[in-house]
Amino acid sequence: MEIMWAPWRGEYIDGTTGYPQPEGCVFCEALTAENDRDRYIIHRGRNAFVIMNLYPYNNGHLLVIPNEHMSRASQMDAETRHEVMDLLMKAEAVLFQVYHPQGVNIGANIGAAAGAGIAQHVHFHVLPRWNADSNFMTTVANTRVIPEALEVTWKKIRDAWDGSKP
Q1: Which residues make Cβ contacts (< 8 Å) with residue 153, sequence separation at least 6?
Q2: What are the helix and strand counts (H, E) for the chain?
Q3: What three-state secondary structure class fits 63?
Q4: What is the DSSP pairing of strand 103-107 with strand 62-66?
Q5: How many domains does the chain contain in total?
Q6: Residue 47 in contact with residue 66, Cβ under 8 Å?
Q7: What is the pLDDT along the chain (166 residues), one digit of tens a residue?
Q8: Where are the strands (E) in 7-165, listed by range?
Q9: Sheet holding 41-44: strands in order across?
Q10: Are β-strands 48-52 and 103-107 bridged in parallel, bridged antiparallel, or unpaired?
Q11: 52 vs 63: CA distance, rounded Å
C-alpha cells in the first residue's frame, strides 16, 4: 500500500483549521470579517461577494454568494441576480487571466440532495479546469493534489481582480 503524507489536512479532519467555527451559516459569518485576507474574500459587492473555496477542487476555485441568506437561486431579487451573474463573468475572466486554464466550470448545487455541502446558503462555484487535471492521483488514489497555498492563490486573484474586465 502506498502512503501519501499530508499532515496539513489533519486540521481539516479534526476541525482545528484555525478558522472560527460559526454556529450559523459559514458564508454569513465570513461577511462579518474585518479583514478580507483572513477569510479569503476576493470582492465585496452591494448584493453579493466572491470568496475562495477553502477546500478547492483546483487552485483558483471561487464561490460567488449572495449577501442575503437564502437557500435557492430563485429567491434572489433581480438586482442580486444581475450582480451575481456579473461577478460570475468577472471571476471567469480573472481565472483565465491568472491561471490560463483550458476551461472553466460554473455551477451551483441547490439543496443537499443535489450535492450542496452548504445547502442553507445558495452559492455558485467557478473553477478553472485543465485537460489533465484529473490525473493519476485522482483516478487511482482518489486524492487531489492542490499545488498552491491558499494565501498565494488569494494574492494572485485579489491582485488581478480590479484590473480585469468581465
Answers
A1: 52, 56, 59, 60
A2: 6, 5
A3: strand
A4: unpaired
A5: 1
A6: yes
A7: 454 555 555 555 455 555 555 578 999 999 999 999 999 999 999 999 999 998 888 889 999 999 999 999 999 999 999 999 999 999 999 999 999 999 999 999 998 888 888 889 999 999 999 887 765 545 455 566 677 888 999 999 999 998 755 5
A8: 41-44, 48-52, 62-66, 103-107, 124-129
A9: 41-44, 48-52, 62-66, 124-129, 103-107
A10: unpaired
A11: 6
* CA triple 93-95-100, angle to 5 deg: 105
Does residue 75 fall inside a structural domain?
Answer: yes
Predicted TM-score of the model (pTM):
0.81
5: amino acid identity, one letter: W
- Here the CATH number for the domain that contains residue 56 is 3.30.428.10
Q: Containing domain of residue 151, as a range?
A: 20-161
Grid cell digits, residue 5: 503524507
How far apart are the C-alpha atoms of 46 and 65, rounded to whole Å? 11
In a domain, 3, yes or no: no
**What 8-state DSSP symbol labels residue 9?**
G
